Amino acid sequence: MKQKMKKTRMNVWMNDKKWLWRHPTDEGLEINLMSVAKSICLTMDVDAICNEAEAWVRKKGVEVRTNGPSYMVYPLSMNSSNKRLERMWNRTNDFKGKIKVKQGGIVLKRGKIGRARGGPSYGISLPNPHACCVDTIIHEFAHVVHLYRYNASIVNGKRRPHDLLYNRIMLKMMQAYCGIPESQTNPIALGWSIGNGYAPSIKIRAIHEEMVKSKDPKVMRWFTKSEGLTYEEELIEKKKQKKPRNTRQKGTGEYNTPKGIITIDETGDSWNKYEVSLPNGYNWCDSHFSYCETLKEAYQYLGTYDKDAKQYTADVLDKCDEDCYCGWDLKEE
Question: Total structural domains in the chain?
Fold first, then answer.
């Protein structure tokens, strides 16, 4: 039976640009991959897919090794892959998407290097996702679904997690997501053989990528109109706006700034321990100095540090009023 995955409502924490990726050929469109992951977990009947896939491979004469009692005998048993995906989503939602790897949740690691992984207790993790990677997300979810209910095949003494049953499950999950025809859910037709278990994933990745780039309606229903900057562009802007930290304090002494010399001295007083002398024409025009209890307070008058010029900017100081009796030349610098 052919399924169609449904869209789910967005959780508040999912409205974050870290989960959004732009369409590869149209910057005006974007996809929320965490939203897609939620829909997979909560709307895809993977137990029905497993039942169909199991019957399909048995007709091919392939032995199926289950992890426990048959789902057909115990429909509410804990070896339900539907229940496992539901728990995966609930766990991810409890952490608001900030769950770590190996904790049984969904981890989309933006900009990280590594390889995608998936398993019943591990959860799934994807390094450096992109707008065309839903096939990879489903690939890893399929490992969760498959290995939660079945044991991987052992052929010639070697474990084969990408066996025929796994690939049938994975391709039927892809069909539920993007409506690929029945002919493309046959792993053997897509190149599967013992020792070449990854071939269907490679073929379906190319098929899915072409569907996204050509804007096939079956995948475009997951895209929405993009707004504002991308996640990476916002990080760059925030970095530009961030003021450099004051990391060059050297205690008392003179500090050269574009507005003149600022001097920090000890007063010897137990209360106002430090005196800050400010350049003429700035702040406290009647005396141009201030008392502070701590060095930390005194450092505030230095402003931010210009790494290129290797000096403080004194950008926190205000100019004296025009009627200041100090008579300082207040013409624009």
Answer: 2
